[in-house]
From TrEMBL:
Domain Dienelactone hydrolase: residue ranges: 70-270
GO MF, one example: hydrolase activity
Name of protein: Dienelactone hydrolase domain-containing protein
Pfam families, sorted: DLH (PF01738)
Lineage: Eukaryota, Fungi, Dikarya, Basidiomycota, Agaricomycotina
């Protein structure tokens, strides 16, 4: 899939803490301090505030090597289906972004072993880059799918060798093309996207309809230059009203911007509703969820429970 546009407004801009100098094992500890620094820096614009809100600094998963690829792995604490895995395909900030890890932990709390592979070979988007940081060079290095296909395919093959038979993907921004890659190659069984980027509309969606058998959910929003409302309408025309037999759903969140499902400012009621709804703690507790307005996380977990 080609990538004519980059996610510049939420994924490649803003002031963030300094780059982690080690691999993720150290980063899981040190980034908690950096994440709090993010909160102190937000607020200079509504976009920056939307994209960098950190709601907690406590994670429960751990770093594991899978097929030689570093992964953040969050496992349910009780009984769960060992043959099912959710692959969490991140935005450009990758494993070090604590919000990504917190979401993986939330999926695990809802019964899904969740694996977040490093799509950047230890080189996610630099946080608070120094003056010498070459943003264009970084983007060029990671723009080509060849930069992540080998690692992703190796992780999937290893999971299947270990007994995993059904894989769901949840792709955020940069993670959308990797999610489509697996679905189009018959390697995944359910696809969930949130504010996707780097997908060509309508071509990639027409190809998905023609070649994939994985049900598709897209969590979309009002203000998203990477997947604007006009493209959302086009995709509905391709996939909706039963045109995509495996299953298609799209949520839409008024008052939210690109990145809301990961980095939304929960002090904003509209963003909180879009990100997590009334209750994200356990989707099994259906009485505690407003299913008519569940939030992107609950909608995603519900979709996995239905199809995975």
């Amino acid at each position: 899939m080609s990538a004519p546009n980059e996610c510049t407004d939420a994924c490649f801009s803003g002031e963030y803490p300094r780059k982690l100098t080690s691999r993720w094992t150290e980063g899981l500890i040190s980034y908690q301090v950096f994440a709090m620094k993010v909160n102190r820096k937000v607020g200079t614009s509504s976009l920056r505030q939307e994209c960098n809100r950190v709601t907690s600094t406590s994670t429960t998963g751990k770093i594991e090597q899978i097929a030689g690829v570093e992964c953040y792995v969050a496992s349910p604490t009780g009984d769960y289906a060992k043959d099912k895995v959710v692959l969490f395909l991140t935005d450009v900030f990758g494993i070090p972004l604590i919000n990504n890890r917190l979401l993986a932990d939330d999926f695990a709390r809802n019964g899904f072993k969740t694996v977040m592979p490093d799509l950047f070979n230890g080189d996610p988007r630099v946080l608070d880059p120094p003056p010498t940081f070459d943003r264009e060079a970084w983007m060029a290095k990671h723009r080509d799918p060849e930069s992540w296909i080998s690692a992703l395919d190796s992780v999937v093959a290893s999971l299947k060798e270990s007994g995993v038979t059904r894989i769901g993907t949840t792709g955020y921004c940069f993670g959308a093309p990797p999610a489509f890659h697996l679905a189009l190659n018959g390697e995944s069984d359910v696809t969930v996207l949130a504010h996707p980027s780097r997908l060509v509309c309508p071509e990639d969606f027409e190809k998905y309809k023609a070649e994939s058998k994985a049900p598709l959910l897209i969590n979309s929003c009002e203000d998203d230059r990477m997947f604007p409302p006009e493209q959302q309408t086009i995709v509905d025309g391709i996939m909706g009203e039963g045109k995509f037999a495996p299953g298609y759903e799209r949520t839409y969140w008024d008052g939210c911007t690109h990145g809301f499902a990961v980095r939304g400012d929960l002090s904003d009621p509209k963003v909180k509703a879009g990100k997590e709804g009334e209750n994200k703690s356990n989707i099994n507790q259906s009485a505690a969820i407003d299913w008519l307005n569940p939030g992107a996380f609950a909608a995603s977990a519900k979709f996995f429970k239905k199809y995975l």
